[in-house]
Every structure is written in C-alpha cells, then in structure tokens.
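User: Could you go from structure to sequence for me? I need the amino acid at each position, not a summary. Structure tokens:
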C-alpha cells in the first residue's frame, strides 16, 4: 500500500500542470493543478467538519487536523485502492508534500512571531526548573523506551538518531496548543497558567535545539564528522541571524506607524527573507522550517509591523496550506500496522512513558516549589500537551528512515491521545468553582438608598461602530457634580480563535491579566482607546479600557467576572443587531445574542442592553451640545424602578429632558374575577413601586427638566396606541420584566426574550421609531433571573444597598 512518495519500485512519470478540459478528453485528476485543488478542498472540508464536531468537547483544532489526516490516509479511506489512486496517487505526492512544507515553513514563521525572547529572559527559577524537569525526565524515559522498540519493531535503524528522536518526541510541549487550551479554560491569569506558559516557552526553545541535534545525527553521510559540521553550521546560522536580522527589522518597524498601512515593500522583503533563511538551513542539512522559525523569533514584536505580518499571512497559511501537512502525515500513518498483542502493548508503553515522564517530572518539581497537589497535577497534564511540533519531529524521523511505519503510527497515536485528554482532565481537577471567589460589595444596582454614591458602569463593545453611542450614553450618565462621580470600564469583546493573531493577543493578555489593561504605548495609540482617553480628559470621568479575549461560549464569564472584580453596578451590552442605512436592524453576529442572554442569567449586578439607533448621531457629542429627550416607560416592577432610577440620574445633565410615563391598568370586570392592578392604592401596604414613585414625585417638583404623566390603559392594544403617539424621543428607558399584564402582552415573540415585551415592541420592525432603546434588568440577590417572559410576584426589595 502506498504511504509516501518514495514507495514503489519505479519512479512515476511527472504530471503536467493543467488540463485541456473534459470536453477535449482530458481527465482533470491526471494533472497536478486540478488534483491539488481537489485535495486542498477535501482536506479543508474534512478537518473543519471534525473541528466543528469536536468543538463541544473544547478540543484544540490540531486534534481535528490530526484525526482528519489519519482518516484520509491508509488507516481509513485509504483502504480503498481506487480512492488512493484517484485522489492521492503516488505521482501527486511530491506536489502535495511541497505545498505542505511551504505552508509549514510560513506557519513556523508565525510561531516564531508568537514567541517573545524578552519573556524567556524574564522566566523565573520555578518555571525554569519545571521546564527542565519536564524535558529531562521524559527525554531519559524516551531513550529507555527506544531500546525496547529497537529490540522489537525497530530493528536495523540508526541507533543514535533513533534514541534522540524518541527522547525529543516524548519531551515536547506544544506551546501554541497549550496557550489555546489555557485561554479556553480561563486559566491564563492563574498561577498555574502563568507557570505553564513560561515553562512551555522554555521547553519549546529546548525542543528546537534538540530537534536540530536529532536531524544532524540522522544524516546519511559516510563520514562521522558530517553531523558535527551540520550542527556547527546551524549554530553559525543562528549567531549570524541574531547579529544581522534584529537591526534590519527594527529599522523597518520604526518606519511603520500605528493607524497607517504597512508598505508592501516591507511585507515582501520579510517574506523573501523567510524563504531565503529556509533555503540556507535546508542547504546546511537541518530543515527549511528552522530558518523561518528563527526569523520569526528575531522580528521585533512591538508596533504594528509584526501584527501586519500575521494579518497578511495567517489565514492563507493556517486555513489552506497547513492542513495539507497533517494529511501528508496521515498518508504516512497506517494504524493497521499496529497489530498483535506486542504492538498494542508497545503503544500502551509509549503512552504511559510519555505521560509518566511529563506529569511526574513536572509534579515533583512543582511540589518542591510548595504548590498544592491539585495545582501540581494540573500543571503536569498541561505540560503533557503535544501538537504540530510533535508531528514535525515524527515526519522528519520517518522521511530520514529513523522511524518505520509501525513506530511512526504508534507515536502519532501517542501524540493524539495525550493532547486529547488534557482538556477534560484539567477541567475535572481544576474546576472554576474551586478558584478564589471575588469580594462582595453592596452597590450592585442603580436604585439605591444613597443615590449620590459613585456609579460604576461596565460597558462592552464589539467594534468601532459601537463607540460614539457608548460615549454619548456615558455623557448622559454623568449626573450632577454633587454626586461622587462616574467610573467607567470599557471592555472590548474579542473572540479567541485558532488564528495566530489571537494567540499574540493572548500573550499580551497574560502579562496583565485577562481581561487586561491597555497600558502599553502601542495600545494607547489605538484609536478606540484614544477616543475614550479624549472623553476622559474632557469630561473628568474615570475611564479604563480593557480587552476580553474569549471563545464565544465562555465570553459571558469574562464579562461577569470583570463586573464583579471592578464592583460594577450595571453592565451595558450592545444589542446583537446594528442599524442599517434604511433604519432597519441587521444581525451583526448571532453568537452575541447568546452572550447577552447568558450575562442576563449569570450577572451579579444590573444589566442593560443598548439597541443603538444612532444615539446622538454617528460622532461623539460635546457636553455643551447635548440635547436629548429621554422617556421612561413605567409599567411596574423592579426593572422599571431601575430604569427610572437611571433616567433620574440622566436628567441631572443640563442638556437632557426626561419624560416619565406611568401606565395604569384600569379595573376590568367582564364576567370574570375582578383583576386589580398592583400599582393602584389599596388598603394594603404600599408596594415598592408606590414608595419609589412617591419619593420620585417629591424630588421632581424641584426639577423643571422632568415631566411625569399617567396613562390609563385597559389592555395591550391601549398601551400600543399610547406608545405610537410618542414621536419625539432620543432614548427609551424600559424595564425588561414589567409586572403588568398589559405590558406582557405587548410582545410574545421568542425573538425578543432578552429584551422583554416592551423592548421587543420598541425594536420590532412593526413599531416606527428612530429612538435608541436601553432595556434594563435590575439585580435581585439570591435568585438568578431566567429568560422566560412570565410575570412573577415580587416582594419589596430587601437587597442591601
């Protein structure tokens, strides 16, 4: 069975690049270009499909790519000879391998960009000790297990090279894969996460050095001095690169300014330098990928130049070319070669050796550093993560005849197994609820006994589109000078993806926490941060900008934890739809709707969802030019009281006029049980609404900017008729869960459950308005709000404020 390009006794005839078309009798699959296109499409579909299937298991994409390569190879689909001859014929493999290695070369250039040499110099003694233990013990056990393999299934191989390859394969920790797992599990800012990242960075560099040594030893030269010359030449290349590359790219980086496009000349020169370095290292006899990796490491990470390089290269390389490398590995992996009790026993031995060496070595040193057993175990399993570098080692060993088919298949399955178990085991032994809880605080809502205390707002945004309206809303929320002021935390919500740029952001986040403050100079140059900084200086409002880098399923955790840690009274979220030119609302990303719903469910403070229809226009409005008409629609309930409390604060701004419309349901008796509205006065104790409104009416008598009206309605139709008459308005403030039958009947659609019935009506296409809408949900202690739109009985508020 064909497993690589060299299998077979005769060299197949080369393929022509393009065909004349099927109408002229040519079979496209007999020509290299159309066949390569088909192979790429098949690989992308299979690997992305598997990634989607494994996403609920929170597995890194490298798992899907390894499995996809195995499925497309002789272990599964490749058992059909007609399939192999049609899709992956031997004469097509040189082209496939060339494209795969070209993708690998540029991907490792990106991997070098991810690695910051400055962080290595700052590695502490604990991380260095953990890294050394995580390398030395598995390396020694790998050498030991190689003797067993040599006596059983790997007879006749190059002994020295085989020992080193086995040691390197078992001692590697996949740095990029580990970073994604830590970010996915919210462990980046824990002590375990920081230690794992620092130790893995050291491990990564050591692995490359050991791999270079292994490649040098695996040469086929007759002279015993050849490996020495190869290794010494590689060292000379690295030294020359350190002396020459940084000054050149530092000069280029200084000419690339934030906010301006990087010149095409600089990008082309850099990519050419990567290829040239790859040529030099390949000529030396190491591998072309070493040169690319070294160039990536030595490029300065500060400024927009490195980010621009990643942006230009990553999608094409990671999306199309790199998966070909996994297929190239899969075509060499034949699980059928593992047969018999001996082979499966050796597989178990290799897996046990790899896991024991990494976990026990890391565990021992971590316990000596006085860490807890749970943290030490977690760190051990994290350091046991394998990935692309593992496959690179195995593929080089296979190509150089150091690893035979059976040993190669065993090692690939070992890498797959050890990486697959990392996430579930870490989740089991290091659960989020076991981590330290945040300190409690009182002011978790806007309605409070002392309204003059400081108001803390966490406002979130997806993109630049949200910024003007957010700043205009914050300007309206300032309140009068007699209050203690407004403190704002602006959180940029960014999705953690498999892209290299996301991991670069993760590394930056790791330095200051996740989410992290934008304290660096290059971050201050960001135009979003500049907008908030300008507003801070003009308005004297305390604003701090942050970024949350999370996967969509876990983004609500970052939002809620950030609000908790900064003692926010309210979280303001952008609606998942934005306004189009014609005034209709268009979905930005449906995933953000689920994020909003989860924040409503889990937040331990009040939450507001802003439906933006251009509050104040598309630009920031100066304080002296603010002129808004704000309406609070009051049906009753804690959420409506929260909306009214927010509106009263806004009315203190000299440019804002507030109108409060209270809807009172008239008594109905039509052959049914008489239903009395909860807001009407009765002989019973006055409700929280009545008490709040009484205090509001008393205070509003001193303020000409506030207008209060009462509207009698019998049902939802009457309420809609009243709302349709409200034309002149800049912003509606409404509660999400009004306690009124007439309000509950305004909108019963499931499409607006997170907005509530009133907010759903105001944002529906059937209701004509140009006003923005802020839907507010008040925090209720001791109970998690649910997303069903059922009227609940509410006792007077007992929350401490």
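Assistant: Here is the amino acid at each position, in order:
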């Amino acid at each position: 069975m064909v497993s690589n390009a060299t299998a077979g006794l005769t060299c197949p005839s080369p393929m022509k690049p393009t065909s004349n078309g099927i109408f002229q009798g040519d079979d496209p699959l007999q020509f290299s270009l159309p066949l390569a296109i088909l192979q790429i499409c098949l690989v992308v579909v299979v690997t992305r499909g598997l990634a989607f299937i494994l996403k609920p298991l929170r597995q890194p994409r490298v798992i899907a790519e390894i499995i996809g390569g195995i499925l497309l190879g002789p272990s599964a689909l490749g058992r059909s000879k007609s399939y192999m001859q049609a899709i992956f014929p031997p004469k097509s493999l040189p082209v496939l391998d060339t494209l795969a290695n070209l993708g690998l070369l540029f991907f490792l250039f990106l991997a070098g960009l991810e690695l910051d040499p400055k962080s290595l110099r700052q590695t502490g003694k604990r991380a260095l000790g953990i890294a050394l233990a995580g390398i030395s013990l598995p390396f020694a056990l790998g050498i030991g297990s190689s003797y067993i393999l040599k006596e059983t299934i790997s007879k006749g191989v190059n002994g020295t090279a085989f020992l080193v390859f086995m040691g390197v394969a078992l001692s590697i920790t996949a740095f990029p894969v580990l970073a994604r797992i830590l970010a996915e599990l919210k462990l980046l800012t824990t002590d375990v996460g920081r230690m794992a990242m620092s130790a893995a960075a050291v491990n990564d560099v050591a692995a490359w050095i050991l791999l270079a040594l292994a490649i040098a030893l695996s040469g086929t030269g007759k002279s015993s001095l050849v490996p020495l010359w190869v290794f010494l030449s590689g060292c000379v290349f690295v030294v020359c690169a350190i002396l020459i590359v940084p000054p050149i790219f530092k000069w280029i980086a200084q000419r690339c300014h934030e906010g301006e496009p990087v010149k095409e000349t600089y990008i082309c020169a850099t990519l050419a330098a990567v290829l040239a370095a790859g040529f030099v290292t390949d000529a030396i006899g190491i591998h072309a990928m070493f040169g690319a990796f070294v160039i990536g490491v030595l490029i300065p990470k500060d400024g927009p130049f490195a980010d621009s390089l990643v942006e230009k290269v990553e999608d094409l390389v990671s999306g199309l070319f790199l998966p070909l490398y996994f297929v190239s590995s899969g075509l060499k992996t034949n699980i059928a070669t593992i047969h018999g009790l001996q082979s499966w026993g050796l597989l178990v031995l290799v897996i046990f050796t790899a896991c024991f060496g990494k976990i026990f070595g890391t565990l021992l040193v971590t316990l000596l550093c006085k860490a807890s057993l749970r943290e030490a175990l977690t760190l051990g399993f994290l350091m046991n993560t394998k990935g692309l570098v593992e496959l690179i080692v195995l593929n080089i060993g296979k190509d150089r005849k150091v690893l035979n088919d059976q040993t190669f298949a065993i090692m690939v399955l070992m890498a797959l197994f050890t990486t697959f178990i990392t996430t579930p085991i870490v989740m089991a032994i290091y659960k989020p609820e076991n981590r330290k809880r945040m300190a409690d605080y009182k002011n978790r809502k806007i309605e409070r006994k002392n309204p003059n205390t400081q108001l803390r707002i966490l406002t979130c945004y997806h993109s630049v589109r949200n910024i003007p309206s957010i700043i205009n809303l914050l300007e309206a929320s300032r309140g009068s000078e007699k209050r203690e002021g407004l403190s704002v935390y602006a959180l940029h919500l960014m999705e953690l993806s498999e892209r290299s740029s996301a991991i670069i952001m993760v590394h930056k986040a790791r330095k200051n926490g996740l989410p992290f403050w934008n304290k660096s100079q290059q971050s201050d140059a960001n135009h979003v941060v500049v907008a908030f900084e300008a507003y801070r200086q003009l308005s004297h409002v305390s604003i701090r900008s942050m970024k949350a880098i999370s996967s969509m399923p876990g983004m609500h955790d970052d939002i809620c934890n950030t609000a908790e840690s900064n003692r926010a009274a309210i979280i303001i979220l952008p609606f998942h739809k934005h306004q189009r030119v014609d005034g209709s609302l268009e979905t930005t990303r449906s995933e953000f709707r689920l994020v909003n719903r989860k924040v409503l469910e889990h937040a331990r403070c009040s939450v507001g969802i802003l439906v933006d229809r251009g509050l104040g226009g598309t630009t920031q409005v100066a304080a002296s030019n603010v002129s808004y008409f704000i309406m609070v629609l009051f049906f009753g309930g804690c959420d409506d009281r929260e909306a009214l409390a927010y509106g009263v604060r806004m009315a203190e701004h000299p440019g804002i006029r507030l109108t409060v419309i209270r809807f009172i349901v008239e008594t109905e008796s039509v052959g049914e049980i008489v239903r009395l509205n909860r807001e009407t006065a009765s002989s019973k104790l006055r409700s929280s609404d009545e008490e709040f409104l009484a205090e509001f009416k008393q205070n509003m008598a001193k303020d000409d900017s506030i207008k209060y009206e009462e509207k009698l309605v019998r049902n939802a139709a009457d309420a809609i008729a009243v709302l349709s008459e409200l034309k002149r308005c800049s912003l509606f403030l409404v509660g999400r869960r009004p306690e009124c039958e007439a309000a509950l009947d305004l909108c019963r659609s499931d499409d607006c459950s997170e907005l509530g019935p009133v907010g759903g009506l105001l944002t529906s296409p059937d209701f004509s308005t140009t006003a923005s809408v802020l839907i507010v949900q008040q925090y209720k202690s001791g109970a998690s709000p649910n997303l069903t739109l059922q009227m609940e009985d509410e006792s007077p508020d007992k929350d401490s404020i």
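One structural detail worth keeping in mind: The radius of gyration is 32 Å.
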